[in-house]
């Protein structure tokens, strides 16, 4: 496997691993705040990121490279509010999209069209994740300080994660 591509893919393995840990920390925080729907959504999101990491690990190894399982820095564990959680999540997704774009650039520079093709799955996934995070932020902004609204929002997120689980399983 092209060495530059392998290095870039392994960098992305680390990104996905740290995304998974970051969302796991958010999930745990939400659970302790009694926001069980939000916690469920974030636990599911954390699992998804782990799946993104595994997909990369397997691809690198299958193509004759060596996947490197990274050390992951401990994520932030306290959050100011639910708004803060989802703003950080959106910012994080935007940063990940940037990394995926850089990965696409490396594939094109190195003329590795197979990896370029594989990475397109991540390009679409980032589009979806950014859109979802923006929708959630819009809802949070609509709720403002309304406690009843927060209750309904939390319940909606629980249903959303059940939907995500169903589509992942099927
Ligand atoms: Fe892996 O998609 Fe989010 O970060």
What small molecules does the structure contain? hydroxy diiron-OXO moiety
Number of domains: 1
**Class derived from helix and strand content:** mainly alpha
The CATH class name reads: Mainly Alpha
Features:
170 residues; mainly alpha; Ferritin; single chain; binds hydroxy diiron-OXO moiety; 5 helices
Walk me through the topology.
Blueprint: H1 3-32, H2 36-62, H3 82-109, H4 113-143, H5 147-169
Helix pairs in contact: 1-2, 1-3, 2-5, 3-4
Question: What features would you describe in this structure?
Answer:
With 170 residues, the chain is mainly α. It has a single domain (3-169), classed as Up-down Bundle (Ferritin). The protein is 82% helix and 0% strand. It is built from 5 helices and no strands. It has helices at 3-32, 36-62, 82-109, 113-143, 147-169. α3 (82-109) runs antiparallel to α4 (113-143). The longest helix is centred in the C-terminal third of the chain and has 31 residues, at 113-143. The two termini are 32 Å apart. The model has no long low-confidence stretch (mean pLDDT 93). Bound molecules: hydroxy diiron-OXO moiety. Hydroxy diiron-OXO moiety is lined by residues 16, 19, 49, 52, 93, 96, 125, 129. Residues 16, 19, 49, 52, 93, 96, 125, 129 line the site of hydroxy diiron-OXO moiety (OFO).
């Amino acid at each position: 496997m092209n060495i530059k591509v392998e290095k870039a893919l392994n960098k992305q393995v680390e990104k996905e691993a740290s995304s998974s840990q970051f969302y796991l920390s958010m999930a745990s925080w939400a659970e302790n705040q009694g926001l069980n729907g939000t916690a469920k959504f974030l636990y599911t999101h954390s699992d998804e990121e782990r799946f993104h990491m595994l997909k990369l690990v397997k691809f690198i190894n299958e193509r004759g490279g060596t996947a490197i399982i990274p050390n992951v820095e401990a994520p932030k564990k306290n959050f100011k509010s639910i708004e803060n959680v989802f703003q950080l999540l959106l910012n994080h997704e935007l940063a990940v999209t940037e990394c995926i774009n850089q990965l696409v650039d490396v594939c094109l520079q190195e003329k590795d069209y197979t990896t370029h093709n594989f990475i397109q799955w991540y390009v679409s996934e980032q589009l979806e994740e950014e859109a979802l995070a923006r929708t959630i932020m819009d809802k949070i902004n609509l709720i403002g300080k309304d406690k009843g609204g927060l209750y309904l929002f939390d319940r909606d997120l629980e249903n959303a994660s059940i939907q995500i689980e169903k589509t992942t399983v099927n």
